[in-house]
Amino acid sequence: MARRRVGLWLVGAFGGVGTTITVGLAAMAKGLVDQTGLTTGLPAFRDLPLPAPGDFVVGGHEIRNTTFAASAEEFRAASGVFDASWLEACRDELAAASARVRPAPRYGLSPTVAKLGDWAADASAGTARQALERIEADLAAFVTAEKLDHLIVLNVSSTEPPFRTGAPHESLAALEAVLDRPGDPVLPSSALYALAAFRGGHTHLNFTPSLGGSFPAARELAERTGSLYGGKDGKTGETLMKTVLAPMFAARNFQVMSWVGHNIFGNRDGVVLDDPSNKSSKVETKDRVITEILGYKPASVVSIEYVPDMGDWKTAWDHIHFKGFLGTKMALQFTWQGCDSLLAAPLGVDLARLADFEKQRGGKGLMLHLSCFFKGPEGDPENDFFKQFARLEAYAAAAQAEATAESR
Q: I need a labelling partner for 277 at 20 to 30 A (CA). Which of 20, 93, 164, 187 fits?
């Protein structure tokens, strides 16, 4: 039986997360590394017919004119990740993937992100419709050239500033009426990729806190074309810890009086988040989960600071001040030190594998069972990591039972 060919289109392909996904898939396909760090490598998911690492065909959009090999070497030198022997062994795969990356339209980019770009932009993409059609054409060409069974558009690009939606974004008809409007962007870049994916009936996953497809007109289009989607904002480090620890405080009936978290890191994401307008999107999702789990809002501070020499290594210091029995005040502190892209990339692979499995099952629309991977899960008020993960395990068990029953 022929293996499925699953396209993985990375928005922000040559960034740290996109590069790590591409290196990781190639290295796993060659048997150079195991699946440590992949949720889908756990026993609960091993019997599902998930795509293997070698079943993915990587392409993408990017504003920087480089290659996966060059990005990986830069990343290795700055952050001490990736074994040089892996990069050499995967040289051909990285080159092939690089050749499938296209220059991204500049429409809807924030000024901070746009300054990072050095790949010649298409001057004709001056309206939202023109940019959308450019992206749509690139996706269609990728599907045709690679004879894909399924295309997944995974947004791993830099965080955008919050985008204020309005009446034009409430319905597809209203949105269509403004796509040719000149002047200020009617959509941010992230929304264009969601719409292009949905127009083609493809799957869209938003790993960023940016708008993406999280507005009524986009959801209407996804439902109309039967597209799968999920998001948003990958839950990888400090916020993962918050959604693990907050349920404990709630279960013990401790009163959390304040939760303060300070984050420092380097890399290009740090450059982008050093801009207050871009930073506000990330801070909002990192801060909200505590209130949603506890049911009340303690005093809170979330800071994110750019420290260039940190590279991809992020350090988060959290101080939780809480009240226990007889009004006794106590505190918990933790320090999280992790390599940001190496925490995020396996989740991107997990999401793509599980989305393809859902596609094989005939699924459509929002994939609520993927909520445990996101800080701000779309359409789901639940942020307790354990409840979210139990839902994913239940989904896998039900799918396995269904497959077993059908095979009898």
A: 20
Does residue 1 belong to any structural domain of this protein? no
Report strand pairing: 313-323 vs 255-265.
antiparallel
Residues 243 and 198 in one domain: no
Residue pLDDT tens, the chain, 408 long: 568 999 999 999 999 999 999 999 999 999 999 999 999 999 999 999 999 999 999 999 999 999 999 999 999 999 999 999 999 999 999 999 999 999 999 999 988 888 888 887 665 568 999 999 999 999 999 999 999 999 999 999 999 999 999 999 999 999 999 999 998 899 999 999 999 999 999 999 999 999 999 999 999 999 999 999 999 999 999 999 999 999 999 999 999 999 999 999 887 776 776 667 665 666 676 678 999 999 999 999 999 899 989 989 999 999 999 999 999 999 999 999 999 999 999 999 999 999 999 999 999 999 999 999 999 999 988 999 999 999 999 999 999 998 888 776
Show the domain range for 278.
238-339
- Residue 280 falls inside a structural domain: yes
Three-state DSSP class for 298? coil
Q: DSSP string of 25-77?
A: HHHHHTTSS--TT-GGGSHHHHTS-PPPGGGEEEEEEESS---HHHHHHHHHH
Rg (CA), the chain: 21
Strand order in the sheet with 313-323: 299-306, 255-265, 313-323, 329-339
209 shares its domain with 265:
no
* Whole-number Å distance between alpha carbons of 371 and 340: 20
Split into its structural domains, the chain has a count of 2
Q: Report yes or no on 153 lying in a domain.
A: yes
Examine the domain organization and report whether 121 and 24 are in the same domain: yes
CB of 235 closer than 8 Å to CB of 380:
no
